[in-house]
Amino acid sequence: MLGQNELVKIFPDFADLVQPSGIDLELDKIYQQTSEGSLIDNEKNLPDLKELPGPIYTLKPHTAYLASIKRKVKIPKGYTMLYLPRSTLLRSFVSVQTAVGDPGFYGTLMFMIYNHGDFEYKIKSGDRIAQAVVFKVEGSGEYSGSYQEEEE
Ligand SMILES: Nc1ccn([C@H]2C[C@H](O)[C@@H](COP(=O)(O)OP(=O)(O)OP(=O)(O)O)O2)c(=O)n1
């Protein structure tokens, strides 16, 4: 796992968010699902989304949302990222569901956020919701899937 000094070098755009062993990730926007979706024979039909008005979002009890992360991330070849929720959210009955950040990925991260509690939870854009931890990958390839964005 990479520590602070390496992370600042490899992810200069996130230098102010680097922690001793990871990178804090800030909430950008929250989206609600507005249509059905499917995954059949690897054909993805993603649900339609409606961006909710911010900057303070109210998460209804027992409801799932998508949460975009501020700043686009570039994961260089030879590195991979795992994303873990901020424990303050877990202590508040809110989970952040994530997956793997592939070597070569460039774009906006999109996590699922779920309020398991019986009460509303308010969260503001810009607050930290997760932490990325980064590992070296020996002999890695590069991501070129459907969520890859053009680098500016
Ligand atoms: N919670 C997450 C996890 C990952 N990613 C980004 C970084 C990953 O490199 C990229 C693709 O993630 P996956 O490989 O998990 O996605 P799929 O396998 O569904 O996509 P594809 O079919 O394009 O490989 O999406 C994301 O936006 N949100």
From TrEMBL:
Pfam families: DCD
Gene Ontology MF annotations: dCTP deaminase activity
Annotated TM spans: none
The UniProt record lists the keyword Transcription regulation: no
Domain of life: Archaea
Gene3D superfamilies referenced in this protein's UniProt entry, alphabetically: 2.70.40.10
Gene Ontology annotations of biological process type: dUTP biosynthetic process
Keywords: Hydrolase, Nucleotide metabolism
PANTHER family xrefs: DCTP DEAMINASE, DEOXYURIDINE 5'-TRIPHOSPHATE NUCLEOTIDOHYDROLASE
Protein's recorded name: dUTP pyrophosphatase
Organism: Methanobrevibacter millerae
